[in-house]
Amino acid sequence: MLPIVELAIFALGILLIDLMIPREWKWINAVGAFVGVLFAALCVWQIQSTLPPRGLTGFYNSLLVDRFAIYFWYLFLAGAAVAILSSGHYLDVEDEHHGEYYVLILLSVAGMMCMAAGIDIVLIFVGLELMAISTYVLVGFLRRDRRSNEAALKYMLLGAFSSGIFAYGLSLFYGIAGGTNLALIARAVSAQNPHNPVVVIALLTTMTGLLFKIAAIPFHQWAPDAYEGAPTSVTGFISVSVKAASWAMLLRILLYGLWPLRSVYTPVIVVVAIATMTGANFAALTQSNTKRLLAYSSIAHVGYMLLAFVAMGTSQIGSPGFLDGFKGILIYLLVYTFMNLGAFAVITSLRQRNVIGDELDDMAGLYRRAPVEAALMLLFLISLAGIPPAAGFLGKYYIFLSLIESGHYGLASLGVIYSVFGLYYYLRIANAILMREPMETGRLPISLGMRCAVGVTALATIVIGVYPEPFIRGVNWSLGIAQSPHVAAVVK
Amino acid sequence: MQSHILSIILFTPLIGALVLLFVPRENKEAVRWIANIFAFGSFVISLPLVPMFWAQRFEVTPTHFKFLEGTPNNWIPSIGASYNLGIDGISFLLIMLTTLLGWISILSSWTAIETRVKEYYLWFLVLQTGMLGVFMALDLFLFFVFWEAMLVPMYLLIGIWGGSRRLYAAIKFFLYTLLGSVLMLLGILFLYFHHHTVTGVFTFSIPELYKTAPLIPFNYAVWLFVAFFIGFAIKVPMFPFHTWLPDAHVEAPTAASVILAGVLLKMGTYGFIRFSLPFFPAVVSHPRVQKWMIGLSIVAIIYGALVSLMQKDMKKLVAYSSVSQMGFCTLGIFALNSMGLTGSVLQQINHGISTGALFLIVGILYERRRTGEISEYGGISNVMPVYATIAMIMFLSSMGLPLLNGFVGEFTILQGVFTANWRWAAWAAPGVVLTAAYLLWLYQRVFFGAVTNPNNEKLHDLTPREVLTFVPLIVMVLWIGLYPKPFFQILEQPVNQIVQALHDNTNVSTAGSNMVNPNIANPSVATPKASD
Question: What's the pTM?
Answer without folding.
Answer: 0.91
